[in-house]
Amino acid sequence: LLPLVWLALWSFGLPRLRAWLTRRAMPRSTQAVTLDDAGALGRAVNIAADLSPFPVTCLTRSLLLEWWLRRKGVPSDLRIGVQLRDGAFRAHAWVECVGVPVNDRMDIALDFLPFDDFGHKATFDR
Questions:
Q1: CA–CA separation, 125 vs 75, rounded Å?
Q2: Residue 67 vs residues 11, 15, 80, 86, 96: alpha-carbon distances, Å
Q3: Count of CB atoms within 10 A of residue 82's CB?
Q4: Which among 73, 75, 77, 44 is positioned nearest to 61, based on CA atoms?
């Protein structure tokens, strides 16, 4: 799925792809998912990205993970943060569940300032 998400992101752009993924993220599972389970899914996506022969960015990984979590009924938030260090501008994407990064370091928001909620704030029953 990662190469398809990357191709769709490149072809359609973030707003259109995210809207499409959101419409298709209807929960298909009634099984309870914990924050630890969400972290395990995040690690699985990161491992798949590391093994992929195709280009995979943090945004590609995070879009796929957000969609996957929502299909499992887990409220999640796509976060995009920016950093300006030594005159260089960088951006980074990750997914949070109740404010906890599930596919990145716990302190990632200290390095990259999130600039938009991209919609609602998710709530999660722990």
A1: 9
A2: 18, 14, 16, 34, 12
A3: 12
A4: 44
